[in-house]
Design a protein that fits this description.
By secondary structure, the chain is an alpha+beta fold. Helix content is about 35%, strand content about 25%. It is built from 4 helices and 5 strands, in the order βααββααββ. Strand 4 and strand 5 form a beta hairpin. About 10% of the residues have low confidence.
């Protein structure tokens, strides 16, 4: 299954994204622990996208790809901020927040980042 939505850049963006993920995952056979991981990591990557867009304009793209054994979530924004991976190397993740990306790196099975997107995968 593939689901793609646009979420407005606003304080409620993380909640909206979590709702989409929860609705998609409700019918899956994924263990509850992995669903909770997906919700936490979605919160972190969407929060990063919101913080990267200081003007609170536009939208954030949320793409979910779910198969019987894998979940992939990708969040895109057009803010042109720094590559999220660079935040992991500053002050142990403390600069400009950054702890959320450490969670992504630790809890996901795979992840990646470009200047305009962050994605992660979880085995189900």
């Amino acid at each position: 299954m593939r689901v793609s939505v646009e979420i407005p850049v606003e304080p409620e963006a993380t909640s909206l994204a979590r709702d989409v993920v929860a609705r998609v995952m409700v019918d899956s056979t994924a263990p509850q622990e992995r669903v909770e991981d997906a919700l936490l990591l979605t919160t972190e990557v969407v929060s990063h996208a919101v913080r990267s867009n200081p003007d609170s304009e536009g939208s954030i793209g949320l793409l979910l790809e779910v198969s019987s054994d894998r979940l992939r979530i990708e969040v895109t924004d057009q803010s042109g901020g720094p590559n999220p991976r660079s935040l992991l190397t500053r002050s142990g993740g403390e600069a400009d927040g950054g702890w959320g990306l450490i969670f992504v790196a630790e809890l996901s099975d795979r992840w990646g980042a470009e200047p305009d997107s962050i994605w992660f995968e979880l085995a189900l």
